[in-house]
């Protein structure tokens, strides 16, 4: 992974964490639980931030979006 790719992944992860904290209700809790399950199921999954603020998890293609 190139350095710029690594920093994009890190910033996407931070943005997803920020979204979870901002929601603060059942939606944030559900997104947090989904994220945990996705990361446990596929440790090599890539977290992305797309389409004007949508959390996306991918591995050789999109696996899941976290629209809230």
List the topology elements.
Layout: H1 3-23, H2 26-41, E1 46-50, E2 54-58, E3 62-65
Biggest β-sheet strands, sense, barrel = 3 strands, antiparallel
| Number of continuous helical runs | 2
The percentage helix is 40-55%
In total, how many domains does the architecture comprise? 1
Rg calc: 12 Å
**Taking strands numbered 1, 2, ... along the chain, how are they ordered across the largest sheet?**
1-2-3
Report the span from N to C terminus. 29 Å
Strand content: 15-25%
- What pattern of helices and strands is seen along the backbone? HHEEE
Q: Give unreliable regions as ranges.
A: none
The outline comes out as globular
Class per helix and strand makeup: alpha+beta
Question: TL;DR?
Answer:
With 68 residues, the protein is of the alpha+beta class. The chain has helices at residues 3-23, 26-41, and strands at residues 46-50, 54-58, 62-65.
Describe the structure.
- This protein has about 70 residues and is an alpha+beta fold.
- It has one domain.
- It has 2 helices and 3 strands.
- It has a 3-stranded antiparallel β-sheet, with helices on one face.
- β1 and β2 form a beta hairpin.
- The longest helix is centred in the N-terminal third of the chain and has 21 residues, at about 5-25.
- It is globular and about 30 Å long.
- The N and C termini lie far apart (about 30 Å).
- The mean pLDDT is about 90.
